[in-house]
Description:
mainly alpha, disordered N terminus, 162 residues, 0% strand, flat, 2 domains
Amino acid sequence: MLKLIAGTLTVIIVLAVHPAQAIEQGKRDDLVKLFFLSGTTRFLDQLPSIMSQQMRGMIKNKVPKISEEHLNIINEEITREFKSSLSGFLDLMIPLYDKAFSHQEIKDMIVFYETPTGRKLNKILPDLAQAGMALGQQWGGKIGRRAGERAAKRIRGLGYEL
């Protein structure tokens, strides 16, 4: 019984460490190219600034007399960490895209992002997404209010006090 358990654990560990289907190097290379062309990695350029602002605020609250020069250490370290860990992020993303897209589909997307239209989409998509989220919040608020009013009316009609 102990040998069976040990053997099963060994198989599980081997499968976890060495996935059954490795990603072909050409497909991996094309995925990395796609990530850069499509702007998938662009948000990493924004995260250090956001995180730095949050950390600076926390430290400034705890140590009000800290100098700007010393606060800049936060920016430097966060930026350094993000830049050095980009390949780790890509290693997490590659299997997701590998499962979702064939190598040919990835090549097709690369061709698209290398066109003027693809470059334009890459350039304006963040602004479109931000504007779309703002519109969605406004729209969702209106719908939520109307649905809430109707639901409350129906529930009151059943004899409940709201």
